[in-house]
Amino acid sequence: MKEQGILAFIVLFFLVFVIIVSSVIDIKYRIIPDELTIGGLILGLALSPLVHIYNNFFYLSVVHNIPDIILRVAYSLIGAIVGGGLLYFVGVVGNGFW
Question: Are 98 and 92 in contact (CB under 8 A)?
Fold first, then answer.
């Protein structure tokens, strides 16, 4: 169990680091590099089955008999699609294509 906490700390530390670097670059140059966004997306989706931070999957995994790892990956994909869609929408509206 202690290893799970250390892994969660490392993943969250990297996430906060990427967010801070992205914010500084965005404020200074008004652009977020694809290396940070796409790399973070791939890393986040790859690590989502490994890190269990909150126990909010209990109801679906127990009542509907869905494995916890499947729920983690599904929620990560939904988050990536919704977050990416919102950013794409903001980019389209911001460029005046609306």
Answer: yes
